[in-house]
Amino acid sequence: MKLHPIPTPASLDRRSHSRVQNNYREAVAAGRYNVHRPSLVGKHDAVRNLWEDQARRQILRPHLQRRCVEAERPVRVLDLGCGAGQGFALLTQIEAAPDQPGRPASCVLAEEAIEYVGADLNPAMVTKGRENYAGYGNVFFFQADLNAGLGVLRREPPFDLYFSSYGSFSHLSLARMRALLADIGRHARNGALVVLDFNGRYSIEWPAYWSARTEAEKVRDYTMNYLHLGDPEAMSRADHFPLRFWTGDDVTRLARTAGRVAGCEFQMVAQMDCSMLVGRHVDTAEYHAALPPLRRLVNSLHQDFQRTDLDRLLLAPELAGEHPLVSPVLSRLIRSWNLLVDFTRRRIEGPVAVADFTDWPACPPALQFALIGMDRVIADAAWVENGDARANLIEPQLAYLLRSLEFGLQRGIGCGHGHLAVLQVVR
């Protein structure tokens, strides 16, 4: 694996500023922050659309539904580190009842039922956001430096949801993040929701970061060279900059200390690890050279009329490492992942009894559900007469069942590329 020098905490606030802003300016200029256009590759690949966005919607759904009922008016949202406004689409496309297919389709937050304010440091992002949502009378963008807390946003009326997404808060040092959260606590109404989105320190993508103890060791190197996959020269030129990486315990302590400063309680509602095995840097192997390109392979599962080599989806057990907290969680997921992939390979070739395939009582419920689901999918695929049943039916369903494994076996400890926490302000 590649080892990168550890920047000091101060560098997170000062020396990295121009590199980070330049990185995002280039991404905007390249069109990567235009209005969301789903695709199977690139920034908005299948894993982003069907795994990562859905994880965030899943964790938010019940709490946002409750908040909408309590508000009885358009829900006010402040998106902190908003980029070009991708959070607006993420929030307004949360299905109200995804487990009830017989109900008419509806969303928790309709576009007209939200007052959205986006704040970002990068002027190119703010300009692009205004372009993307020109004509929306309920969407506004402001340039703001979150290193200064809420700043001028303190003058705004309180919000119902203080939102962040895709690791935007990892750009802040611990001290700056604590000050920002305390600002939110002083500004918010009782019952307001706060969504914190960080880069997880215990991701399989960077095992060299797992052992961090001091604050300096928790601020580590990061790059967005994954935006240039397939172009080695562009990947090598991509900027590197420091981020603060977080664990579930870190976030719990942050909520407690910021609450004391603000004179309120930040009640921990939920924590979730996202992209435990399919983070962006699984494919780049930038920080862990032994990783297979699993994200690319999962994207392939979602591709119509394209068969994926399922053997390449199998993971070596030793990738779980040897960490007392992290390794048991990763080992359980890797073992379940491999069992589901192996069962799918064998079941495609012929009948296999699910209960006899493995030690059934020892399987976690998420794996039992996935194995039964795959067995039924393959049995039903025998009736498909047109097209490629494996590529168009079996493989996409395998991808969704692998996703359900990740969602079901995560423990919210900081074990994914992304780490989400939902807090509620209590006075």
Describe this structure in words.
It is a single chain. This protein is α/β, with parallel strands linked by helices and 427 residues long. It folds into 2 domains: 9-276 and 412-426, Vaccinia Virus protein VP39 (Rossmann fold), CATH 3.40.50; 294-409, no CATH class. It is built from 14 helices and 9 strands. Strands 1, 2, 3, 4, 5, 6, 7, 8 and 9 form a 9-stranded mixed sheet that branches. Strand 2 (114-120), helix 5 (123-132) and strand 3 (139-143) form a beta-alpha-beta unit. Helix 2 runs parallel beside helix 5, helix 6 packs across helix 8 (248-262) and helix 11 packs parallel to helix 13 (365-381).
Labels describing this entry:
nine-stranded mixed β-sheet; 427 residues; alpha/beta; Rossmann fold
Please specify the SSE layout and strand pairing.
Blueprint: H1 9-13, H2 17-29, H3 46-71, E1 75-80, H4 86-91, E2 114-120, H5 123-132, E3 139-143, E4 161-163, H6 174-187, E5 193-200, E6 219-223, H7 232-237, E7 240-246, H8 248-262, E8 265-274, H9 280-284, H10 294-301, H11 326-349, H12 354-357, H13 365-381, H14 389-409, E9 418-426
Parallel strand pairs: 1-2, 1-4, 2-3, 4-5, 5-7
Antiparallel strand pairs: 5-9, 6-7, 8-9
